[in-house]
Structures are given as C-alpha cells and as structure tokens.
Amino acid sequence: RLCIAALPEGAMAANGAALEPGADGRFGFAKIVGAPGKGIEYYLQKYEAVLGRQSKQGNVDVVLGDNMAISRRHARIFYNFEAEQFELEVMGKNGVSVNGRLQTPDMPNAVLRSQDVLTVADVTLCFLLPKQEARPAPPPQEQPPEAAREAAAEA
Hints:
Blueprint: E1 30-34, E2 41-44, E3 48-52, E4 62-63, E5 75-80, E6 85-90, E7 96-98, E8 101-103, E9 110-112, E10 116-120, E11 123-128, H1 145-154
Parallel strand pairs: 3-4
Antiparallel strand pairs: 1-2, 1-11, 3-5, 5-6, 6-9, 7-8, 7-10, 10-11
C-alpha cells in the first residue's frame, strides 16, 4: 500500500512542535510521496506547495510529470492557520481525486489527513503528516477536604 510509510518521529508537526530531523536528515511539516518508481518525494518545509506539470513557463514545488492532463499549476496544498489543518485547493480543470472522490476547482478546499491518497491524472500520491505522540491523560484532581466531605454527605 502506498501510504504505509510515515514521516520519521521527531519531524516538525504542523503546530511547530519539535524541529528535529529524522534518520534521513530531513524534516518538514508534511510529506508527499509518489508510488514506488515514480521518484516523487517532497517534504513540505513551508506552509504551502504547488503541484503541477513540468513546464518552462513556471516553477512548481512538486513536478507531477509532463502529462497534458495535468495543469502547469494543478493544485496547492497549504496549511490553513485559522482551521489548523492542511487543505487542498484544486486549480486544474481535470481535478484531483482524494481517496477516490473527485475534487474540482469549483468545490470548497478538501481537508487533508495523514495517509490520504491523491490522484492527479496518472499520478498517485500519498499525503503524510508526522506521527503525533499520544499525550497521557491528566492526573485526577484531588478535591479539597471540605468538598470531599460535602460530596460524601450528599451521597
């Protein structure tokens, strides 16, 4: 499965936690990985990345090949600070499938979760976020002696 891989533990989370490189020496807010053999591996080290077709007329962050079904600026993945989540804005007329559901330019931005599968024309990608450490539950708060006596008296 394409999305089995994950970012190394200790990579930077979207909220800015722990900026430590993984075992491969890289880090980022998120990672975009292509199917094996496609040569696509991009670490988002800024809050947005543009995906598109290779072109002499403009640069994109993630080159998806030279298929004419892919627009020069086909999609943009960005971090929405207000909603505190990554989103996908589709700009290419042929759209992007997110987990098998077609997103088109006239639709609201799609919310991206770790291990979402993105398909642009004949290119399949996986969107990955850093592993989040589980936070331990806070210890139960002790009641002051007076409140404990009152609670016991009411029972």
